[in-house]
Amino acid sequence: MKLEKEKYKKLCLENPTIPLFQRYDWYDTIFDNDCWGVSLLESGNEVIGFLPYYIVVKHNFKLIVIPPLTPYQGIWLKYPDELKYTNQLSFEKEAITTLIEKLPNVDDFRQKFFPSFTNWLPFYWKGYSQTTRYTYIIEELTDLERIYYEFRGNIRREIKKAELVLTIENTEKIEDLFQFLLDFFTEKSEKNLISKDLLTRIAEYCKKNNCGEILIAKDTDNQIHSVLFYVWDSESAYYLTGATNSNFKTTGSMSLLLWEAIKRSKHRTKAFNFEGSMIESIERYFRAFGGKQIPYFEIHKNNSTLLRWLYKIKSIIGK
């Protein structure tokens, strides 16, 4: 695996347009070395495709899972020049099949793929299944006036109201973001799966590589209303995570922060991806910013009869 990672690292250094969440240094910096790996496709001495993965062991089950704060993963391919469409599909079938076959043997596989990945048929033929999920993307950031016009009326009203009483600042205080997320999940009686250490690693990575920042909206009493963490690469900015103080839910602070992130992203990249949600209330909120609804795949395969049985029992008990 060490050799594969070195080849993967070299490829990413030579190809700065590889998306942020698929880059070697994203995995190498943020996750422990024994928690991730990569499946490589080579032609001669050249790497022409890869599939990174995050792997954990739970209750003696070996699982490839969706890593925290990494909304998309999946396959990257370097296509041969001037391929006809039918030849492109043939290339994808062969390449994706090879990458699948090079994955380690695990009890369960689950990843969310970039919206740009559209051909999951080779996974289907290998016994995988997929769930179609949705995100909202503002695909062109040059005309901010038009973008603002496309916001739903209530979002524009929230922003105008928030601008009267709140100011926006950058912060490097991970404690603020972590505490907001902790309070958010506690209020919902859910477990916070985002550790302070992970947030710190990502923030330090973004600072070093100039690819992300944390914004806060605060009032004249220095009370923080909302915190937002977003990142970017050469193609898009991505809303990564954020939260609002439950005492200030109606001040419009999160809408103000998202608008600020969109405006700043104009000078850094091409698009803004809200990262999506299948939770109805969150989907409704993101949809109100006027982005285009874009589907993407969550691809899954369970290889363990015992684990399938346990999942079924858990779903029955949870009903």
Structural class of the helix and strand makeup? alpha+beta
Q: Number of folding domains?
A: 2
The CATH topology of the largest domain turns out to be Aminopeptidase
Order of helices and strands: HHEEEEHEHEHHEHHEEEHEHEH
- Shape field: globular
CATH class division of the largest domain = Alpha Beta
Say which CATH homologous superfamily of the largest domain is assigned: Gcn5-related N-acetyltransferase (GNAT)
Rg computed from alpha carbons, rounded to a whole number of angstroms: 21 Å
Helix content: 25-40%
CATH architecture of the largest domain: 3-Layer(aba) Sandwich
Largest sheet: 12 strands, mixed
Query: What integer is the average pLDDT?
Result: 93
Number of strands: 12
Q: Which band does the percent of strand residues land in?
A: 25-35%
